[in-house]
Amino acid sequence: MPNYPLTATQIASFHADGWVHLPNFLTKEEVAELTSTYMRFLRRELPVQGRDYCDMTGDYGKPIEDFAILNVLLPRRYHPAWQGNVYEQRARATAAQLIGDDIALDYDQLIAKPPHKPLGVFHWHQDLGYWPRTKDTRTASFWLALDHVAPDNGVVRFVRASHREPLLRPHVPLYGDRNQNHTMVAVVDEQRDCVQYAELQPGDLTVHHERTVHGSSGNHSDRWRRGYVLAYRSAATVAEERSMGFTHSHNDDPKVLARIAESARLPR
């Protein structure tokens, strides 16, 4: 299985800007194979427990047909046959080129915006706003496009170099209570911040750092906007998270999530 050798320019962009666009990471055939299993999750043919299948934009209990952002957390946990797929293998080798070889897969996630869901906004955030403090912050978070991702259906956007800011930006729960909605929102001034956009073709992806501010708009189009996330971090960091009781599941202990949300408001 061929790896994806990075150029010096791509590596430099990741470290300078906090993200990088990698075109043609997977072939059309590889994307099609992943999409087949992906849609089995969305149709609930592959069962997912509790809040690990939810809508990221509103009430956890709303009907599926009203979901604006279909969210499946830890799909490889619920469908072990997916573990070690071509995307995981290639992403792991690429992450090693960016942040070192002493890494592990921290979590995986499916994020899908159905057609004609303009309210499917993924608000500005830093991944670290959701995560506990750890000693080693090396992260390579992959966002694979299974569809053409453009301004009309929720293009991915980043605040350039925000990962190099000395403090994490303030994050607040979208509705004031993470038990009602898991979404956190970071402060962004789009007049001051340098916002960059990543239009993607199927098989393209972006890789970003845990502190890079990013988000996306709703889907105004008549086509899907499906993304598949893999996050690689140092093996020591993953072990440290698990020792705290944090697994990236929406079914984690609410007391653990509350402590993490509180720590996100503190200087780092």
What kind of sheet is the major sheet? 7 strands, antiparallel
What name is given to the CATH topology?
Jelly Rolls
The unreliable regions are none
Cα-to-Cα separation, first versus last residue: 40 Å
CATH architecture: Sandwich
Just give the CATH class: Mainly Beta
Rg over alpha carbons: 17 Å
What is the strand content? 15-25%
Shape designation: globular
What's the helix count? 6
Helix content: 10-25%
- What is the N-to-C order of secondary-structure elements (H for helix, E for strand)? HEHEEHHEEEEEEEEEEHH
- Strand tally: 13
Identify the strand order in the major beta sheet.
1-11-6-13-4-3-2
Instruction: Output the structural class.
Output: alpha+beta
User: How many domains, as an integer?
Assistant: 1
Under CATH, the homologous superfamily reads q2cbj1_9rhob like domain
| Mean of all residue-level pLDDT scores | 88
List the helices and strands and how they pair.
Elements: H1 8-17, E1 19-22, H2 28-42, E2 53-55, E3 70-73, H3 75-78, H4 86-99, E4 103-113, E5 122-125, E6 139-145, E7 156-159, E8 171-173, E9 184-186, E10 195-198, E11 205-208, E12 214-216, E13 225-234, H5 235-243, H6 254-263
Antiparallel strand pairs: 1-11, 2-3, 3-4, 4-13, 5-12, 6-11, 6-13, 7-10, 7-12, 8-9
